Amino acid sequence: MGLRDWDHLVPVATGEVRPEGFELDLESRAVTPDVLSEPGLDGGETSFSRYVLGRAAGDDRLVGLPVFVMRGFRHRCVLVRRDSELTSLEELKGARIGLTGWPDSGNTWTRALLRAAGVDIRGIEWTVGPLVAGETGKDRVGPVPFPDNVSLTGDGLAEGLAEGRYDAIMTPFMPDEFFTPDSRFRHLLPDHRAAELAYYRETGFVPGIHLVTLKREAVERDPGLPQAVQNLLERSKRHWLARRRLLADTTPWLLADLTETARTFGPDWMPYGVAPNAAMIAAFCEELHAQGISNRRIRPEEVFDI
């Protein structure tokens, strides 16, 4: 199984949490694997968007587990120049925006924020490209044609923003410069954390970005495998959280953050399973269709077999 180095998976990778009823060979990946294209993999981390689009097209070669190993709010993912006058999503009407991929899950969620703010995404001049020139290992195009207002570039979006070619960029990962005192960039929203909290109180979820999938032939060999894998990753997540609460020194304010997270979201801000993620799954399926990425409105019950 190919997965990236998410903290909550570390207990499985180190053997502190072991599988029950099956053997696991876990491979750490720098980028999300294409599970179907690798004969040596029985499963792995998969883009939520690519998985749902496959299901919408009738491709059921992957069995998705409602185990979202990557989740995150997207308000923080919109950057502008430090000297920009823009401070709200509503002000992006008719803007020039660069983003790091068109059909991918994260940018789908970010465009959903614009739509919710009353911004017509068809009126934006979009440019899809790498955050930094020369980045490789990501399919930025996807399986469906781009709309007419979307173009591709090989130039770095961060430099394009700095040079004034874009009014804003959307990126899940901050450029290195962002962490320096004299960075040319800032978040669009002056208080993105407050906006994210308001979003959670309105929707009841933190958006899912990547999930775990298994090849159907692996499930046919062992029908109990999906639930066994989900149980393993649930135990790993709980073990990781317990250790973080005990050794809360990864960052200077981690303990305060862990406390506030528990008070805000309850015991688990990233629940696994279909039922606790039903609203999020339905919202994402709706956005894929509303944004023209999926040519049909896939029903949430079509997404997962378990």
From TrEMBL:
Keywords: Lyase. It is an enzyme of class 4 (lyase). GO terms for molecular function: 4,5-dihydroxyphthalate decarboxylase activity. SUPFAM superfamilies: Periplasmic binding protein-like II. Its EC number is 4.1.1.55. This is 4,5-dihydroxyphthalate decarboxylase.
